[in-house]
Every structure is written in structure tokens, then in C-alpha cells.
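Sample 1 of the test manifest.
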Amino acid sequence: MSDGARILLGHGSGGRLYRDLVRDVFLAHFDNPVLARLDDAAALVAAGRIALTTDAHVVQPLVFAGGDIGRLAVAGTVNDLATAAARPLGLAAAFVIEEGFEMARLHEICASMAATAAEAPVAIVTGDTKVVQRGAADGLFITTTGVGEIVVDHEVAAAAAVAGDVLLLSGTLGDHALAVLAARGDFHFTLDVQSDCAPLWGLVEAALAAGGTTVHFLRDPTRGGLATVLAELAEETGLGIDVDEDALPVSAAVRSACSLLGYDPLALANEGKMVLAVAPEGAEAVLGALRGRTEGARAARIGTLVAQHPGRVALRTPYGTRRVVDMPVGELLPRIC
Amino acid sequence: MTPPGSSSDAARVAGLAAALARVGQLERTYMEVCGTHTMAVSRYGLRDLLPPGMRLVSGPGCPVCVTAVGDLDVVVALSRLPGVTIATFGDLVRVPSSRSSLAVERAAGADVRVVYSPVDAVDLAAAEPDRQLVLVGIGFETTAPTVAGALLVARERGLPNFSVLSLHKTMPGALRALLDSGESRIDGFILPGHVSVVTGSDCFRFLASEYGVGGVVAGFTADDVLTALLMLARQERPAIEIGYRRAVTAAGNRVAQDVIARVFEPCDAVWRGLGAIPDSGLRLSAEFRAYAAEERFTVDPGAPEEPAGCRCGEVLRGVIDPPDCPLFGRRCTPEMPVGACMVSSEGSCAAHFRYRALDLSGGGRV
Ligand code: SF4
């Protein structure tokens, strides 16, 4: 491939250029026997119940500290499967590429997808590519669909959470959101924050192994942050939630950027974190299992599901006062006052 | 300073609350002027720590909230002009104007950009020389110097397609108008920390000398706000004090004051809730008139209409608390805001709603 090669409309036409693209880029990076058959549909074998999820990824910029759209596309879908206690069996990836996109960047992003998939571990077993005219897409969009095999017999869902369950969070808040904003050049200061973007099946598998049926609920606090996950959990269960602000892990860099910009770490997106609701008798074991892994090194016990104040999340501030936590609304904006 | 949220900070705050309880037995109403204070008070649940007689009301310090609906109409009308890009900051985009909002216009095809810093707007103008870029400047003495700085950069770079619609306001005049109205009882002010970094505390002396109302310039941590309240409660006679010495001086920042004085000149301004206040706004000075959007474009925004039932005006004057508005939390929420005070994160209604204290007595929603 020559330097400066770019995606042409013809790469999406299904003809020769398309075949070259599939062979030189996708097969080269995602190399696995199922994909190599180039059948229209991939055949997978599952033992029991399966989970299915899909997610469209449209991040700008495409590359940021700690990750890129490719890593995000794989990790996001693997993590959605993990919330259903599902071991990923295979991913499908659909690429919408803007005409003129540099081939070298596509290679980098596919290499990152492949590396993330290996980490998960999961194979990218089928896919599709469309090329749209310049201006019709912002560089590259990736939609990933995942199928997973549910490895537990008990229900892992909001409906399974009960009063008394302990809430665990697998690590620090806000790193992803701030890394992306910093990569956009929106801040006029340098910020030493890396996105936490990572596939979490290994972490969840360890938690399930340690906690078994005491693990009642799993959800990844992506867009809308921890605030959204907790508000939804309270609403879906009809229970109250008590959270301890002191217990929330937040890195020093994120904390100071937040106080400068007026952001609330609870509202910031994460791409490599998991919230778990665990019966009290399993909480210590699960916390230990989380902390035993790099992605969970800063895991913490952050709160409890309670019968009081149903449907509401109450945050206890370090000053002993309490306030309600709601879902954040709209765009993330710095304060101007 | 101890790091906010640390155990030593929490201990200090508990100590301050106890000290307040000892001195603050009298009925007192203090006003926190600045939107960031409103956020901090709600976020840390500081109302829970005040002694029974002490009340804290929000003032006219949220830049988005005090922007008059008629001015928003002008911005909306500008956004509809062909070839015009609007750059602005904060939540202004979502604030309802008389018959629209920038968000609605953007969805309908207007080019509206949110910038983090005014200089970003200069870069946008340079990147798209075929479009007219209008930077909508809102905010007080804190943001005015940054907009002035952007204008200086645009002039230096010779960008003919850059202009500024200055809706900037200055704080002292608004506080004077508030006290003149005599409508609400104010026993003291928590004065704005960020504004005072620029202006210095001296510009607020008239509050004590002419109106007999004291004030303390405060920072934004729980410790800062309670320290300021304690200083106010302990004042034997009205005075203007600084409780935020790590950032604020009596004279302020001369460089920032100079750039404001060079680029802007005082003008009358209309404030939401307070009405027209003489010399409380900033427009571009004669030297920079050519960059004034109101000189460059002619628009007919129509007659301004306040959102029906919204009591932002009274909220901004500290006459009512947000929950006293019949629409609060019912028809008006951060998702579906009726008035500006529910849109901006610095707005009193939004802060009250978002960080409302937990009512442990009942389980119902607000
Ligand atoms: S609650 Fe809504 S309608 Fe009522 S004053 Fe506040 S912004 Fe206006």
C-alpha cells in the first residue's frame, strides 16, 4: 500500500477494491478462522442462554489518551455483554467510513481493535463496510454487535437487586470523559488523564467466580456516568440508594479539573468501569477479586441499596449533609461564573 | 488549604458549623451573589449546616440567567442570518428565548458553536473566512477580560469576519439596584470570588458605607462558604471583608481591569428580573466599535416575551426560593426547563433541583 493511500468510494462498492480492503485491512488485523471463511454470517456455538448487544461509536477525536474509537468499539460491546454476566463469543463490526479517510489511520484503528479483542478475549467474526461521500460522515463510525454466553444460572439484573445489597465500583470516575475532552483541545491547560477504556469480561468473570449468586446486578457507567446508573437502578428497583461521596474513587487530576471546570465526577463518562450490587455476605470476596486485577485495583465499596427513600439516590457529602443525585442532562459544559 | 473532602477539611467544616450555631441564633438572610456559590451551597448540602434562623438566598450572579430575554431574541435572530456562525459559551444555547432558543435554531440548521474559551472563537473565524463569526459575550468581570483578549487577538490577526455581541454585565450596579428596590431583606452578601479576583473587593465598599449591608468575598469550597458566613455573622458593624485571601485583594487585578477599560465602556443594560440598570453593562468602546455585532448586522427580533408562569425574576432578586415557584420540579425541570434559572447549571432553580436536599420524611418525588 502506498503512503498517503485513502479510502475511495469504490472501496465500499463490493468490487475489487472492496475485496482488497477486506483482505489487506480487516482480515490482516482480525485474523481468525471464522472471519476467514468470509461467509455472510458467522456460525457460533453457545452452551446455554445467550446475550446480544449492539452499540454505535462516534467519538471525536478518533484517538485520545488511553484509547481510540477501535478500542472503544470493542470494549464497549464486551462490557455491555459482561453486564449480563455473558462471556463474549463473537463480535460483528460495521464500519461507516468517510471518503478520503487515510488508510494508515484505518490500519491503526483496526490494529487497536484487534489488540483489544485479544485482551477481552473475543474474536471479530463478521463485519460490513460502507463508504459514504465526503461530508456525509465524520471520518469513521463503528458499530459493534456482540453475542455472549451467559455463564450464571441466577438472574443478574436490576430486578435481582434487593435492599441491603452493597454497591461496589471497580475504579476511578471520569477519566474517559476528561481524556476525550482534553484530546479535543477544549481545555487551555494540560491534563494528565488517560481514558480508562478497557474490556472488562475478565474482571466480571473474577467477580462472579468470587461472589457467585451474591452478585445481583452489573452495569457499566458510560454516558451519563455513575449518577445515571444509580438513578436508573433506584428507579428500576423502587429502592433507595445511599452513596458515600468520600468513598468514590476519583484521581487527583480528575478532581482538580472538575473543580476548575465545575464538572461533577459522578456525571462523567467512563469506558472501563463496572458498578456491582452484591449481597452483603459476598461483598468482601467480590471486592477482593476486583482489587486483584489491574482494571479493578482501585475498586471500592461506595454505598448500599436501602428500603428508605424509594426511587432516590442520596449522596452523603464529606460534611455529613445529604443530597439527591439525579441523572445529568444535556451536554457537559464548563461553568462560566 | 486542606484538600476539599479530606477528613481534616470535613473536621474544619464541622467546626465552622458549630461556631455558626453559636453566633447565628438571630434571624439573618444572607445572599450568595454568584452562580458558582449557588452550585457549591447546593452541592455540599450546606443549607443543612446552617443554624435555624439563618437563611441563604441566591442573587443575580448566574450569567446565563440574568441575560434578558430580549437580548436572547437578538442572538436567535443573528443565528438565522445566512453566513453567520454564533459562538457562545455555557448553557446559553438551551435557554428559551421568546419564541425559540439557540438549540432549536441549531437543529433547524443554524451554525451555533459552544466554545470553552473566547479565543477558540477567533480560531473558528480564522478557519472559516467566508463566514461571519459572532461571539456572544455573556458574564461578568470574570469573562469580560477573556472576551476582550479574544478581540485583541482577532484584531491583531486582521480577521474582518469576527465580531462580538457584548451582553456583559457588571456586578456592583446590580447589587445597588437590588438594595434600592428594598424588596427583599438582605443582611449581608457572600460576594463573588471570581469576579473579585478581577475587580478587587473595594468596588463593593458602597454596600457597607451607603446601605449598611456587610459582605464577605468568598471562595468556593464548603470551608470557604461557611467561613464567609461566620465572618458575616460576627461583623459588629457592616464591612466589606475578604474571606478568600489566597486569590482576592482589595484592588484586584490591574491588568484585567485595564483590558476591560480599553475594550469596553459602560452602558445601560437590561437584566432579567432586575430590569434596566444604568451603567451596569459593557459595550465595545469607540476604538473597537467596528467589531460590534450590533453595528455590523441589522435584525428585528420582535417584542420580547417572558416564559409564562416563570418566576425567575423573583428568584434572581432573592424574593422567592425556587421551590416557591409553582412550576418548580413539575412543569419545569432541567430536562424541560421553562426559565433560564433552570437551564444553567449555575442557575438557582437548577442547583436547587439537582442537588435538592433529601426529604427523608416521604418517599414521593418532588
Ligand atoms: S422553577 Fe422554572 S419556571 Fe419557576 S422560576 Fe425557576 S426557571 Fe422559572
